[in-house]
Amino acid sequence: MQVTGQIKRLLMMNAASNIIFNYIGIFINLYIWEKNKSIFDVTWFNLILFILWSIAFAVGSRLLSRFTTRLLIRTVAISGALTFILLSFLELDNRLLWITIIAIPIGIMWGFYASAQNITLCVFGKGKDFEGYFSVASIIGQVISIINPIAFAFIIRWVGYSGSFLLMFLFVAILLTVSFFIPPITLAKEPEPLFRNMRFSQVFSYTSLRWMAPSCLAAGVFLQFQGLFALIYTFSVSSDKLVIALLNVMYASSTIIAMMLYRRLKTGEGVWLMIGMLFISAGFLLPLMPRAPLLVASNILTTVGMFYFGTVWNTRQFRVISKHTAIEQARILLWREWFLNIARITMLVLILFVKELSGAVFVTLIAFALVCALSIPLFSRNSSAAFDQKQPAERSL
């Protein structure tokens, strides 16, 4: 697969970012967990992170109306450097304040990076460059998700967390350097401002788009439930960093197997989506008996399910979104991110009340996540059906 020089630089940016985000997703959460083995601490960290992510995403989208993605990626790199400086030197008696301060620059990193990714989708979304970029980016992500956990597990064993924080500055420096050479993508040349005509009724102006709202809200709930408890289940199985890394490699490998089956078996999108939601549902139910093998099995099932969900769900939504102009796509994606994050934040607030992997609160949240997961095929099917009906009507005009 041939890609242009600009796309190669974007892929290098993607690789450096993925290494940093994968490290944070596993080992910073583990670093916070190890102190008190508290679900509350990890949940609080992720809650602050997603609140800042939502704010940074909106701010980043606004900045792209005047500046380019280069500024956003530089801000991501600077925020990353600040994160590892704080992790290396900041010590506070107030545990929640310390977690909050650590989470703030990480939320800014992810929010700004998501904004940059969205505008990249808008610009490259209808060309061959887009296909090349995201195909190779997917492979890079899978390789990193296998190699990164094991590599950093050994590094932390040899030189401790402080040594791994120091090493992360190398990838931050690579990201900062690449930011000067990536394509300067911007919305500044668009004929109208991003935040004009931003009301829900104006952006989601027809049926297939409107079905995205409940779909994103439901997705945000079960995505956050799975994302947080997948970590906690793994941390509960073992405190050994290498074992935790190997479990994450197992989850990544199961995704690769799921991807191979998806490509080889000629099955409709709706069937794959239903299979994904059934895997996720089974994975949500297994922790009702919180034994180590079942917790691992739960994560394998939900990881495979998330692959099928993400592939079909995102493809269907982007198929609708890609019919719009770049500025319209940016507005839709901004609302989409807000819906997802509102649901994520709501779920995290509810998870704050979970003390252990049992009890009425935990079971109630499983039921809530399960209902949201099983509603996704219905929302997605309705959106796709409305879109398919709209296309022939437009062609006949």
UniProtKB/TrEMBL annotation:
It comes from the Bacteria. The chain crosses the membrane at residues 12-32, 44-64, 71-90, 96-113, 133-159, 165-188, 209-236, 242-262, 271-288, 294-313, 333-354, 360-380. The keyword Ion transport does not apply. InterPro entries: MFS_trans_sf. Keywords: Membrane, Transmembrane, Transmembrane helix. This is MFS transporter.
